[in-house]
UniProtKB/TrEMBL annotation:
Residues 58-136 form the UspA domain. Pfam families: Usp. InterPro entries: Rossmann-like_a/b/a_fold, Universal_stress_UspA, UspA. This is Y1388-like protein.
């Protein structure tokens, strides 16, 4: 979870934190079933098991982020949101929650993948009605 650690320790806590802040951590996971047969030959139990395994990772991410907020004395929570596409879902949640700003990380996609798939952070920057800061994924040494 480099984005969570980087955001909390270096960006937010040292530069942005205000006494009455409430931080929402939102993730819109894109579940991947590449290793499981889908369609008419699909094994429903295998699909369910794969989903549960991936969902547990997302739950842990949210739980860890919320715990880090608590340890830092920051009010807030992290939750999973479902949506067809992460970008529009994040913009919708920012509007619904009435946030003052959005701070998000990048996934570190290659230029080719960004071209083919689009960039969630680019979408949010272009469509959100509040300021958006994008924190690049810290490169491994």
């Amino acid at each position: 979870m480099p984005v969570v650690d980087n955001f909390l320790s270096k960006r937010y806590l040292n530069n942005l934190k205000q006494p009455n802040d409430y931080v929402y951590g939102i993730t819109v996971p894109e579940y991947n079933f590449a290793g499981v047969t889908v369609g008419p030959l699909a094994d429903p139990q295998a699909l369910q098991d794969d989903f549960i395994t991936q969902h547990k990772v997302v739950e842990k991410l949210c739980s860890d982020f919320t715990a880090k907020l608590r340890q830092a004395g920051v009010k807030g929570q992290a939750d999973e949101q479902s949506g067809d596409k992460p970008g529009p879902t994040l913009v919708e949640m920012a509007e619904k929650l009435g946030v003052d700003c959005v701070i998000m990380g990048t996934r570190g996609l290659s230029k080719l993948k960004k071209l083919l798939m689009g960039s969630v952070s680019s979408y949010v920057v272009q469509h959100c009605n509040v300021p958006v800061s994008v924190i690049p994924l810290k490169k491994k040494d």
